[in-house]
Amino acid sequence: MKFWCVFKKELQLYYGSFIAYALSMAFLVLAGYFFYTDMIFYDLFGDFMDITTSLWFYYFQDVRFFSLLILPLLTMRLFAEEKKLGTIELLWTYPLKDSHIILGKFLASFFVFFLMVAATLFYPLLLSTIHAFAWGPPLAGYLGILLLGAAFIACGTFISSLTENQLVSAMSTYAVLVSWWFLTWNEEAVGDELLGISLFDRFESFAKGVINTKDVFFFVIVTLMFLYLTLRSTESRKWRGTR
Questions:
Q1: Any idea what DSSP says for residue 94?
Q2: Closest CA to 52 of 205, 198, 195
Q3: What is the distance of C-alpha 60 from the center of its chain?
Q4: What is the pLDDT of residues 187-224, one digit of tens each?
Q5: Residue 209 belongs to what H/E stretch?
Q6: Which of 10, 80, 226, 233 could form a disulfide with 161 if both were Cys (CB 3.0 to 4.6 A apart)?
Q7: To the nearest 5 percent, what fractions of the chain are helix, strand and coil?
């Protein structure tokens, strides 16, 4: 539990400034807007389509999109800000392993994201008061969003460890994630093998209300891969002769 002090410190930094509040507000406004428009679509075509394919699928695809827009802004400061301010040197002197520091920062960002996602449960709860539906598909979608968000955050954490410029960190994270997305747009060109490594294609089963253990495992592996790369990045200071 040595990461706990880093976790609390990061949460204080998030909620001690406007960052978490501003990003949470943007997330909730976008979620509310897309839920409303997708619900209108379901209301218009609901007689011909079930709620999973005409509401939840499109809603979680939309949440996937604006999560991509917001999460790099959440992670850009994790290491980059401390490097720029020089506080990273003080952090390395604490009786903590690099893995504890990385885990604390990652979990703090993920917790902020979790609260954002949890707040959007208000929308399906409100819908349930006027229209009964099975909760299985939306809960599968929420699980997929959390797994996808964890992968995004781990990627942003890694890139933030490579630079001391927050803007560079955010834009580089966008570049990696968007390239990962665009890579599989032309399915005929890339083939089924490459589609298998796409975070975005893997997410579609969750949006359809299906929890595939292979997809869960894939997101966990991607998240751990980026956290491992972050660990190697932070440890590189030792052979560079810096603390």
A1: S
A2: 205
A3: 13
A4: 545 555 555 677 788 888 999 889 999 999 999 999 99
A5: none
A6: 233
A7: 80, 0, 20
Q: Give just the sign of the alpha carbon dihedral 223, 225, 229, 234.
A: positive
- For residue 89, give both structure tokens: 């040197």
Q: Give dist(CA 176, CA 172) in Å, integer.
A: 6
List, for residues 93-135, the tens digit of each pLDDT value.
778 888 899 999 999 999 999 999 999 999 999 988 888 888 9
Task: Report the C-alpha gap between 119 and 28 in whole angstroms.
Answer: 7
Residue 154 has φ and ψ, to the nearest 5°, of -60, -40
Cβ-contact 60, 38 below 8 angstroms: no
Residue position matching structure tokens 């939306």: 138
Report the 10 Å Cβ neighbour count for 111: 15
| Dihedral over alpha carbons 161, 166, 172, 177 (to 10 degrees) | 90
